[in-house]
Design brief:
By secondary structure, the chain is mainly beta. It has eight helices and 35 strands. The two termini are 35 Å apart.
């Protein structure tokens, strides 16, 4: 149906252009305006509005509409008797995830309310899956979605529903009809109208009127936890919505026939943004000077090396070595080993190498092999045949053709005894960087949100022998963690406290030694990699670790094995502690501790769906055995959303139920904030509960992450 509408619009455009051409006065500007109008019609998307819990919907009820893929939203709503903090992530075009932090107005927490925690609160998460999107049929057919509200945690606001939404763009209207169970009881519906939507220049164009039939079972104490929310004079809620600058949403409404509510939210498409600043400080792909002179008297080997050294440096690469060798067919091969200092994506690396190598390769070389080195070890090779480089240089073929003719290979060995070494260079001895240091905790006994803000200063580099080192200092300037005690007062972990005491480390306000370790990485050939590391890997742990990984190029699969022997660090300084805390009931005891962990890691990268899957099977640091599942949704601009779930035999009890570690995280390229490309990232993750079960200790930089970043 969608292709039929598109074809109709194209026929209208073509017919209009023919009429304009046959006329006496052919107005080019009118033709361009017609084409622009057609493009707008093809790209038209009816605005999605959000309800009080930041789901696509009306006031309290959901609809089948969703935001754009990659959107992230944050908002606050005051819906008596609740104050809601909401978060929304649109992972796929048909999958919406939201989370809510509800504060019960006027009700103190029964246990910790008098200690500073304040009013009672509840956390929840919601999921909505679109079976049919209205956009798929250009709004001819309705959209259908199913949803589960508050599906994890206490489930105090749990409900399930199916909803159908019909959009009528000609009338600037949408309406929905749905059926639910749980808190949403049976039939519900809603309608939204933009009365001035046809007035493209009017400031009232983004004003929407809302009316819904609210089927929440307010009078049932099992479905409405707050006593002040059980009154309902009317099942119809009504209100107004207004959107500013396609970024900020405001909503005012009258709910339950009893109370006025207010909501404000903002959203941004983090998954599709090219960044917040243009990359004006990035060099253009190499074009000149071109030098394809043979290696010989007019262009000695050292001059060839200089050509590549300076050209690569200007493009954001470091040249580590140049060699001349021969293959079994006596073809002359030029080998270059480079390090990518700047670019986050492999496509950027390949584009710049295509331009540079084709401009500087000598005529009397049959093949160029470019070895891309990662963090201490070669990762992959690009094999360029000189005839194809000449065709590219003369613009007979483009990047797509040259990439196809010059595929990526696993790193190959070559006989150095039969090789002429032209140039060799060491990796930089040191590099300084500064990053924000952020620690956050939700739901402590003395407050709903605790944080510490500071600065992390690091020096990294390579020692002789290509041994990587990391030395990182931390400093906390602003902290609200001083009144935390590093233990769950109601449910103290009965496992050895390998992680729950992390708060004690974060309470240090002076200079802390966050990392001091050495690491050696190697390529064992044919897609096999190995790593060994020793030192202080984090504020709380140090030790020795080893890892081996099989990850050939062009393979979505990878498998690895990691083992580590770890010691607990003292809260301050660089010394190790021999003891670790363990609770027996509510009584703290201390036992001797030397930690160890080992895992088999399985990886799968689905590039079609931009989805990364990881499964780790083994023994965790608290000596519990189990499996950790991890899912990463990544976008073309480098943004990543991560979720994990761990199931072990730790038997960790929280509020009478067995707890399994789970959490979410986000990774954002720092180049979004720079005027130049950068490989560094800002990472943030949060577990549902600070516990010891399913905890994997730090061991340095993991092989798969280093290699996958170079191939992404």
């Amino acid at each position: 149906m969608k292709w039929l509408n598109s074809l109709f619009l194209l026929l209208v455009t073509w017919n209009t252009l023919l009429i304009a051409t046959e006329g006496d006065d052919c107005d080019l500007m009118s033709d361009l305006l017609i084409v622009d109008w057609v493009n707008q019609q093809l790209a038209y998307r009816f605005p999605t509005t959000y309800n009080n819990t930041l789901q696509g919907g009306y006031i309290n009820m959901p609809s089948a509409l969703m935001g754009e893929e990659g959107e992230i939203g944050f908002g606050y709503s005051r819906v008596p008797p609740y104050k809601n903090w909401n978060l929304r992530v649109q992972l796929f075009e048909n999958l919406e995830l939201t989370s809510n932090y509800r504060v019960f107005s006027g009700i103190l927490d029964p246990v910790f309310g008098h200690m500073g925690f304040g009013e009672f609160s509840d956390k929840g998460a919601n999921i909505k899956l679109a079976l049919i999107r209205p956009e798929d049929s250009d709004y001819v057919l309705p959209g259908i979605a199913v949803g589960w509200d508050d599906f994890i945690g206490t489930k105090g606001f749990e409900s399930q529903y199916v909803v159908m939404t019909q959009v009528i763009p000609q009338l600037n209207t949408e309406f929905s009809l749905g059926y639910g169970s749980g808190r949403i009881k049976q039939w519900f519906g809603g309608i939204l109208l933009y009365p001035f939507g046809h007035q493209s220049c009017s400031p009232l164009r983004n004003l929407a009127l809302n009316l819904e039939y609210d089927s929440i079972d307010y009078k049932n104490p099992e479905r409405e936890p707050h006593p002040d929310g059980r009154n309902q004079s009317s099942k119809f809620n009504w209100g107004f919505k207004y959107r500013f600058w396609d970024t900020i949403d405001l909503m005012a409404s009258y709910v339950r026939g009893e109370e006025y509510s207010f909501a404000i939210s903002t959203y941004y498409n983090l998954g599709k943004t090219p960044g917040f600043l243009p990359k004006i400080d990035d060099p253009l792909p190499y074009t000149s000077p071109k030098n394809q002179q043979d290696i010989g008297y007019l262009r000695p080997e050292q001059v060839l090396a200089q050509d590549f050294v300076y050209a690569l440096k200007a493009q954001g690469f470091q040249l580590l070595g140049v060699w001349l060798t021969y293959d079994d067919d006596c073809r002359r091969i030029l080998r270059l080993k480079i390090y990518n200092c700047r670019y986050l994506f492999e496509r950027q690396v390949r584009c710049r190498l295509n331009h540079l190598v084709s401009s500087l390769v000598p005529e009397n070389v049959d093949k160029v092999v470019v070895v891309l080195e990662g963090e201490g070890a070669p990762i992959q090779e690009y094999h360029y045949h000189t005839p194809f480089l000449r065709m590219y240089s003369c613009r007979y073929i483009g990047d797509a053709e040259l990439d196809l003719l010059s595929p990526i290979h696993n790193v190959t060995r070559f006989d150095r005894c039969a090789t002429q070494t032209i140039f060799e260079n060491e990796r930089p001895l040191y590099c300084l960087d500064f990053l924000p240091k952020v620690h956050t905790f939700f739901g402590s006994t003395t407050g709903k949100f605790k944080y510490a803000l500071g600065l992390s200063a690091g020096m990294t580099g390579y020692l002789p022998g290509n041994i990587y080192y990391s030395f990182r200092l931390g400093w906390i300037g602003i902290t609200k963690l001083t009144d935390l005690i590093g233990v769950d007062r109601l449910n103290p972990s009965q496992l050895i406290n390998i992680h729950t005491d992390i708060v004690c480390y974060y309470q240090n306000k002076g200079i802390t030694f966050d990392q001091i370790y050495l690491e050696k990485t190697g390529n064992l050939s044919n897609g096999w990699f190995a790593r060994g590391s020793v030192g202080h890997f984090a504020q709380n742990y140090g030790g020795v670790a080893g890892e081996i990984l099989y990850y050939p190029v062009d393979s979505p699969w990878a498998v690895g094995f990691e083992a580590a022997l770890l010691k607990k660090r003292k809260v301050s300084g660089i010394e190790f502690s021999e003891d670790i805390r363990k609770f027996v009931g509510f009584v703290p005891t201390f036992v001797k501790f030397t930690g160890y962990q080992y895992f088999v890691d399985l990886y799968y990268d689905s590039r079609q769906f931009e989805l990364g899957l990881k499964m780790s099977i083994g023994k965790f640091l608290a000596r519990d055995v189990g499996i950790r599942y991890e899912v990463t949704r990544y976008f073309a601009n480098g943004v990543q959303f991560i979720a994990w779930y761990t199931r072990t035999n730790g038997h960790d009890m929280v509020n009478g139920s067995t707890y399994f570690d789970k959490g979410v995280g986000i990774s954002v390229p720092l180049e979004f904030f720079y005027t130049y490309s950068c490989r560094n990232r800002w990472n943030y993750s949060m577990s549902a509960w600070l516990r010891d079960v399913g905890y994997r200790g730090p061991t340095g930089r993991r092989l798969y992450d280093m290699i996958h970043d170079q191939r992404m």
